[in-house]
Write a structure and sequence with these properties.
The complex is a heterodimer of chains A (about 130) and B (about 400). Chain A has about 130 residues and is an alpha+beta fold. Chain A has helices spanning about 5-15, 60-75, 80-85, 85-95, 105-120; strands at about 25-30, 35-45, 50-55. Chain A has one domain (about 5-120): Sufe protein. Chain: A (Alpha-Beta Complex). In chain A, about 40% of the residues lie in helices and about 20% in strands. Chain B is of the alpha/beta class. Chain B has 2 domains: about 25-280, Aspartate Aminotransferase, domain 2 (3-Layer(aba) Sandwich), CATH 3.40.640.10; about 285-390, Alpha-Beta Complex (Aspartate Aminotransferase, domain 1), CATH 3.90.1150.10. Chain B contains 13 helices and 15 strands. Chain B has helices at about 5-10, 25-40, 50-70, 85-95, 115-125, 170-180, 200, 225-230, 265-280, 285-305, 325-335, 350-355, 370-390; strands at about 15, 75-80, 105, 130, 150-155, 180-185, 205-210, 220-225, 240-245, 250, 310, 315-320, 340, 340-345, 360-365. A 7-stranded mixed beta sheet of chain B has the order 2-8-7-6-5-3-4, with helices on both faces. A 4-stranded antiparallel beta sheet of chain B has the order 11-12-15-14, covered by helices on one side. In chain B, helix 2 (about 25-40) runs antiparallel to helix 9 (about 265-280). Chain B is globular and about 75 Å long. Classes of the chains: A alpha+beta (about 130), B alpha/beta (about 400). The interface of A and B includes residues 1 and 61 of A.
Chain lengths: ~130, ~400
């Protein structure tokens, strides 16, 4: 039996950027109806780039480790660059392909982040899968 | 107990412990449906040729079989898509008779199917919802004062799909009737698992699903007392539910057909009949005893491992959690050992909130499960506990 690859396990046990920013420009929460996982992002922007980001919420090993990796990856990147990323792009960065049912867990944070940015930009969020 | 009757369990090397979600089907059920499609597939109630007559006859015989199974009359049995549709039918049909500020009483342990229809219609019609709370043993904390002369409907689950609690229905149904309220029972987890006699329980309505009691998917039942069904409005309009139609008026069919608009799921109804015959042949009391024994055995083993079990499981369902691990992680790990359990909120988000958890792991049984299945589960859970400890996850 194996819960997660070692590297992901480390993110699960010791998630990076976990918590809530006091000073933020974006606040977005989302949930996964499959497992009841919830996520809350707080984001501080500077020149259309993510200056700081934190996530919090209760989740499974996959969602927690993917949120940890996601927040590490996006820090310092421009929001336009993040919007251009596809789900598969993120799964490659995550480095682990969960089973079909649980791909949602790995993508929960990524999709919520894209929605948050679109909402911030006052753009329609319909096209986010 | 007769595992060999279930083809899927022979074909796949799995330990199936998710029967509360859906049960496996014995071969005679699958064959009966196959027989319909290969020998007399035709629409019911309208054709005058032989195979249509045969289909109609079998369809109506199934209604008689279901009626006999719960001690009702055939005219009191309505075929629906499942428990959810049965409860929606009731909510939409009964809400017409309610006034603003009338009350509907539910409980905190309801499945979303016995909560959301009432909640949404209550909101639209300014009707008040009230809830029976649950105590720390996972039982209903029923106070008779919750029912008053404004209470028009009491709708409760018989056996909790999370806690396995068997609710004392007779007592609450009597209280409801004394105050002039209707009593609705959600029997999704109880029918087919224990003897159900609607006269003895004295419920006005009973909703249940075929696929949780060894029958096919896509078919369910709504039982209703004759005099109530007579006065209720249909929920779906269309073919088969009418007697006479003109461009501006319609006279509805008699009960139960008044509530069965459109072509019914004949094959599944025929499959359900076979499932009931199969259950009768084995004996519902023996099935109940078998499942209760497995539950008792499992709870003891889980507690020995130090795993937290919710409520006081009795009939066929056990929910638990491993500290520090999400139920989906536990389910995925068990899946690596070919063990199928359910993890998540079990369509009972308010109950999860009450239990202060995100979700639970649920194991549930039916007659084909054996002690050996439980032993495999316990062995795998033990390995998970070791894995968790090794990785420094709080246990």
């Amino acid at each position: 039996m194996e819960l997660l690859y070692e590297e992901l396990m480390d993110h699960y046990k010791d998630p990076r950027n976990y918590g809530v920013l006091k000073d933020f420009d974006i606040k977005e929460s989302d949930s996964n109806p499959l497992c009841g996982d919830e996520i809350l992002f707080t984001i501080k922007l500077e020149d259309e780039r993510i200056k700081d980001i934190k996530f919090s919420g209760a989740g499974c090993a996959i969602s927690r480790s993917s949120d940890s990796i996601l927040t590490e990856y996006v820090k310092g990147r421009s929001i336009n660059e993040i919007l251009k990323m596809s789900n598969d792009d993120f799964l490659k960065i995550y480095g682990f392909k969960p089973s079909a049912m649980r791909v949602k867990c790995a993508l929960l944070g990524f999709i919520a982040l894209k929605k948050a940015i679109l909402r911030y930009l006052n753009q329609p969020i319909k096209n986010v899968p | 107990m007769r595992k060999d009757d279930f083809p899927l369990l022979k074909n796949r090397k799995i330990v199936y412990l998710d029967s509360a979600a859906t049960s496996q089907k014995p071969s005679i059920v699958i064959e009966a449906m196959n027989d319909f499609y290969t020998r007399y597939n035709s629409n019911v109630h309208r054709g005058v040729y032989s195979i249509s007559e045969e289909a109609t006859l079998e369809y109506e015989k199934a209604r008689e079989k279901v009626a006999e199974f719960i001690n009702a009359l055939p005219s009191e049995i309505i075929f629906t898509r499942g428990t959810t549709e049965s409860l929606n039918l009731l909510a939409y049909s009964l809400i017409d008779d309610l006034k603003e500020n009338d009350e509907i009483l539910l409980s905190e342990m309801e499945h979303h199917s016995n909560l959301v229809p009432w909640q949404q219609l209550a909101k639209k019609n300014n009707i008040k919802l009230k809830f029976i709370h649950i105590n720390k043993n996972g039982q209903l904390d029923f106070d008779p004062n919750l029912i008053n002369n404004k209470t028009k409907i009491v709708s409760l689950v018989h056996v909790s799909n999370v806690l396995g609690t068997i609710n004392d229905i007779k007592k609450i149904a009597k209280e409801a009737h004394d105050k002039g309220a209707l009593f609705i029972l959600d029997g999704a987890q109880s029918v087919g698992h224990m003897k159900i006699d609607v006269k003895d329980l004295d419920v006005d309505f009973l909703a249940f699903s075929s696929h949780k009691m060894l029958g096919p998917m896509g078919i369910g039942v709504l039982y209703g007392k004759s005099d109530l069904l007579e006065t209720m409005n249909p929920f779906l309009y269309g073919g088969d539910m009418i007697k006479q139609v003109s461009l501006y008026e319609t006279r509805f069919n008699d009960v139960p057909w008044k509530f069965e608009a459109g072509t019914p799921n004949v094959a599944s109804v025929i499959g359900l009949k076979k499932a009931i015959e199969y259950i009768n042949e084995i004996g519902i009391d023996d099935i109940e005893k078998h499942n209760r024994k497995l539950v008792k055995y499992t709870v003891e083993k889980l507690k020995k491992l130090g795993i937290k079990v919710y409520g006081t499981p009795k009939l066929n369902v056990i929910s638990f959690n491993i500290d520090g691990m999400h139920p989906h992680d536990v389910s995925s790990l068990l899946n690596q050992n070919r063990i199928c359990i359910r993890g998540g909120h079990m369509c009972c988000m308010p109950l999860m909130k009450k239990l202060s958890v995100n979700g639970v792991c649920r194991v549930s049984f039916n007659l084909y499960n054996e002690k050996k299945d439980v032993d495999e589960l316990i062995k795998a859970l033990n390995e998970i506990l070791i894995l968790a400890e090794k990785n420094g996850i709080a246990v």
